[in-house]
Amino acid sequence: MPLDDRFEDLVASLTGFYRAWVIQLGIELGLFARLREAGANGLTRAELAAAAKAAGEPISAWCDAAYAADLIADDGRRVTRWTRMSRRSCSTRTARNTLAGSSPTR
Fold first, then answer.
1. Mapped to the 3 state alphabet, what secondary structure does 55-67 carry?
2. Which DSSP helix (H) or strand (E) runs through 74?
3. pTM for the full model?
């Protein structure tokens, strides 16, 4: 395998790892749930931090990472929960519900 191909594989693996890490943090801290509850209007980063009972700076850093991973939309004023890419990346109903902050239906 040429060096360029190995580098591309490494970058793809790291991207997947960091995206999964951002998703896990969003689920554990309830950030996706707070954004879902806020609806289409979303929340400011400060409002999201307050709703999650967390410090503003780490939540703002999470928003940057989630936006870079195409998991949330951020217009510079308000953060909303889903982008088209994040919907496509969730291939099962359970995954979509989990990321959206609701429990799966059975």
1. CHHHHHHHHHHHH
2. strand 73-74
3. 0.70
